[in-house]
Design goal:
Blueprint: H1 8-16, H2 23-32, H3 50-53, H4 59-69, E1 79-82, E2 85-86, H5 88-94, E3 107-112, E4 115-122, E5 131-135, E6 158-162, E7 166-172, E8 177-182, E9 184-185, E10 194-197
Helix pairs in contact: 1-2
Length: about 210
């Protein structure tokens, strides 16, 4: 995918078929992103000023645009490139520990609280399965003395969102947490990196 903005109609057709987010939500976000010169919203178009930025409806995108207008750079935690990692299953076999190796790698350092969040991705090839994972690290079984009887099952509760190039709307309704990028492969050295931007003001959401 080139780093120019996707057309609004094309992006909505591509993304709404695989996400629960509405076409109206996507249309609004892509409309707000027209002030940026690239598809990852890392720089403003030449000539964009306060008048155009004040028309942006999404407050976080508006704040980002004003930051860029003041000459500030996009934070490296919010805008970063992620490379594929060796599949935990394959790594576990190599280490002779079965399928017990951690599946929570590629931590972003970004905390996403309950609510709706915009995540912009680029570089994801059509046949690749890359997810944004939000694990509920704070949850405990109703009866800690017998976690096997947890009605939600054994293991870590998590929310998982498949990422596509362009805008992804992540809606967290039950819990927030640190975000991880699940990008695994049996031959990671042959995979292309992907770039992800969380377009919000840093505040207290970076770790």
């Amino acid at each position: 995918m080139k780093k120019g903005l996707l057309t609004i109609a094309g992006a909505i057709l591509l993304t709404s078929s695989v996400f629960s987010q509405s076409a109206d939500d996507l249309h609004a976000v892509y409309s707000d992103l027209t002030v940026f010169s690239d598809g990852l919203a890392s720089s403003l178009k030449n000539g964009v000023g306060k008048k155009q930025i004040n028309l942006i409806k999404n407050e976080e995108i508006k704040a980002l645009a004003f930051d860029l207008l003041r000459g500030e750079k996009v934070n490296d935690y919010k805008y970063s490139t992620y490379r594929a990692l060796l599949s935990p299953k394959t790594l576990g076999q190599e280490l002779s520990i079965g399928d017990g190796y951690s599946k929570y790698e590629n931590i972003t350092g970004v905390y996403l609280p309950i609510g709706q969040h915009i995540v912009i991705a680029d570089g994801i090839e059509e046949d690749k399965d890359i997810h944004l994972v939000i694990p509920n690290w704070m949850r405990k079984a109703p009866n800690p003395d017998d976690p096997t009887k947890d009605p939600k099952g054994w293991g870590i509760e998590k929310k998982e969102f498949k990422l596509r190039n362009g805008v992804n709307i992540i809606d967290l309704k039950e819990f927030g947490s640190l975000a991880y990028v699940n990008y695994f492969s049996d031959s990671p050295e042959n995979e292309k990196p992907v770039t992800i931007h969380f377009p919000f003001r840093p505040s207290k959401r970076l770790f």
